[in-house]
Write a structure and sequence with these properties.
mainly alpha, 170 residues, 4 strands, two-stranded antiparallel ribbon, 6 helices
Length: 170
């Protein structure tokens, strides 16, 4: 029998992994002495960095699953009466993954992240201006999918310069 994890079942693996790292971070349960003292980075055991990085990434994974399950596949999909476009889910995934990576760099390793934000902001503005029409078309397509203004079998009119084009949605 082919069973796939869907809904709340999809939250089990990230929740267990996140709980495992929370347990390790709060109690340091069962870390062998060779992991806590032998490998040091900036005067801190390397194992604690692994635990902290695991905590950030597993937390990001759990948050991503929560948002996809309860927000996109739950509330929003019921509100629009259909599936949420994949682009919306992908953008939210990129935002959550960026927050996790930024947390690892800034909090765990203590490196400055202001230069990263400034550079990514400038690059985003340049790319936004360069791809302005394409981005506009993408968001128009997303809006059409979410709005569901017409369905198969409806007749539509597209106003063109020379003449109007009439057709049936198929």
């Amino acid at each position: 029998m082919n069973r796939s994890f869907g809904g709340v079942g999809a939250l089990l693996a990230p929740a267990l992994l996140f709980s495992f790292f929370v347990l390790l971070a709060s109690h340091g349960v069962g870390l062998p002495p060779f992991l806590t003292g032998a490998f040091l980075y900036q005067g801190k055991p390397a194992a604690s960095y692994v635990i902290d990085v695991g905590l950030w990434f597993s937390g990001g994974w759990a948050l991503l699953r929560l948002v996809n399950t309860f927000v996109w596949d739950g509330a929003v999909s019921r509100a629009i009466g259909g599936r949420v476009p994949g682009l919306v889910k992908t953008i939210s995934s990129i935002v959550i993954a960026s927050i996790a990576v930024t947390g690892v760099v800034g909090v765990v390793f203590g490196l400055p992240i202001t230069g990263f934000f400034a550079t990514s902001g400038v690059v985003g503005i340049v790319i936004g201006f360069a791809l302005r029409n394409t981005i506009n078309d993408v968001f128009t397509g997303v809006a059409l999918n979410i709005d569901r203004g017409f369905k198969i079998g409806d007749w539509v009119t597209v106003h063109a310069r020379e003449r109007d084009i009439v057709g049936e949605v198929s």
